[in-house]
Amino acid sequence: MNRLVAALIGLAAPIAFASAAVADSAQYTIDQLQAQGYVVAINWVDGNTGAPLSSCRVVAVHNPDSSPGESSSATTVYVDLACPRQQAPVGIGGGFGF
Questions:
Q1: Does the N terminus or the C terminus of the chain have fewer Cβ atoms within 10 A?
Q2: 18: closest CA among 9, 30, 7, 29?
Q3: What are the φ/ψ torsions at residue 26 (nearest 5 degrees)?
Q4: How many domains is the chain partitioned into structurally?
């Protein structure tokens, strides 16, 4: 996953990620980007927007200001997330129709 995220960033300012041995949930990826000075905006592209970030996966990372040599300070990157879908309540129901 780390390679995928790094590839999606492309020629944007270099963003260092830990080794592939580290489980990289969306929360981990966001934390890494913020630690490097990026402002992170989340695009919820699939699933439940109320799901904890630790259960979501990163689909893409977009940096619209990918000017080479520019500082990451105050640069906004957009992280596309896919999260587990909300489970429908389970129960027993009954009714009468007319």
A1: C
A2: 29
A3: -60, -40
A4: 1
- Let me know if residue 94 belongs to a domain: no
In this structure, what are the phi and psi dihedrals at residue 44, rounded to the nearest 5 degrees?
-85, 100
Beta strands 76-82 and 39-46, pairing class: parallel
The answer, yes or no, to whether residue 17 has pLDDT greater than 70, is no
pLDDT, averaged across the chain: 73
Helix (H) / strand (E) element for 58: namely strand 57-62
Name the amino acid, one letter, at 83.
C
Question: What's the distance, CA 50 to chain centroid?
Answer: 13
Q: Is residue 87 part of a domain?
A: no
Residue 77 is classified by DSSP as: E
**Residue 59 sits in which domain range?**
2-82
Q: Does position 49 have pLDDT exceeding 60, yes or no?
A: yes
Q: Which is it for the CA torsion 44, 10, 4, 36, positive or negative?
A: negative
The residue written with tokens 């780390």 in the block is 2
